[in-house]
Specification:
- The chain has five helices and no strands.
- It is mostly helical.
- α1 runs antiparallel to α5.
- The protein is elongated.
């Protein structure tokens, strides 16, 4: 069980730091980030009335999800929300045909999916071992 916890910590670490880092660097400059996102999404069919609030929520969500992954809090739900967030980002990138951003977002998504699979597989095994 201890080996699982240690391995899972180090597997979570890169994506947790990435999410936390994305949020952390944007938090001090929320206004600038929001303006940048609004400018970037001008060609999108997504209305600015949705983009502006999202641009303020995104850095906070990224930072919180990174911290939650780092401390292993409600991991299953944190992974669900992280995957949902990646899906929203992918949709936004598709809407402006930013294919290079989608590569990074898909990489994060696959990594999160791998974490989810590892978590579920090992959680079931540890429960089985406790029962036996």
């Amino acid at each position: 069980m201890k080996d699982f916890k240690t391995a899972f910590f180090f597997l979570r670490l890169p994506v947790a730091v990435s999410l936390f880092g994305h949020g952390l660097v944007r938090l001090p400059k929320l206004q600038t980030f929001s303006e940048w996102m609004l400018t970037t999404m001008e060609k999108s069919a997504i209305p600015s009335v949705l983009i502006v609030p999202f641009s303020y929520i995104l850095p906070i969500a990224e930072a919180i999800l990174g911290i939650l992954l780092l401390i292993n809090f409600k991991t299953k739900y944190t992974l669900y929300v992280s995957l949902a967030l990646m899906s929203i980002l992918i949709f936004g990138s598709c809407s402006i045909e930013n294919w290079s951003a989608i590569e990074s977002q898909l990489l994060h998504s696959f990594y999160l999916l791998g974490l989810f699979w590892f978590y579920e597989k090992n959680l079931k095994q540890s429960i089985k071992l406790q029962i036996d």
